[in-house]
Amino acid sequence: MSGWSDEATPLGEIAAAIRAFNEARDWGQYHSPRNLAMSLSVEANELLELYLWSADDGPQPPVAARGPKVAEEAADVLITLLNFCQRANIDLASAAEAKLARNAERYPVERARGRLEKAAELAEPGE
User: Domains along the chain?
Assistant: First the structure.
């Protein structure tokens, strides 16, 4: 399990390795969608905590020693998300593709480029 990269490693390969890891430890018994959804929130908040009290124009994370933990916590988020998707029967790549297509409809470039408003708040051109 070495040599993975974002460019070269399919999501399915990562998910299969995570599934095998969990099966070897019999952790599936704890992996209900509800428990995994809660765990996903916990892991995302552990990542967020590393940036707590960062100034917008200052170093991020604000304490240099936290830097190495960022990748670890991001990996925990990915692992937990893939565990959740497996248990909830979600094809994550397909869901992401569908969501991007929906967002492209809701946020057309000519109305949304450089704007922070939600879709319902974006005015039609000329309004």
Answer: 11-90 (1.10.287.1080), 92-127 (no CATH)
Inter-CA distances, 41 with 73, 97, 101, Å = 12, 23, 25
pLDDT tens for 62-80 read 999 999 999 999 999 999 9
DSSP 122: P
Which H or E run includes 15? Answer: helix 11-25
Q: Are 82 and 92 in contact (CB under 8 A)?
A: yes
Cα separation, 54 vs 89, in Å, equals: 37
Please say whether the beta carbons of 22 and 31 come within 8 A. yes
pLDDT for 1 equals 57
Does the structure show a pLDDT above 70 at 126? Answer: no
Neighbours of 118 (CB within 10 A): 10
Cβ contact 112:123 at 8 Å? no
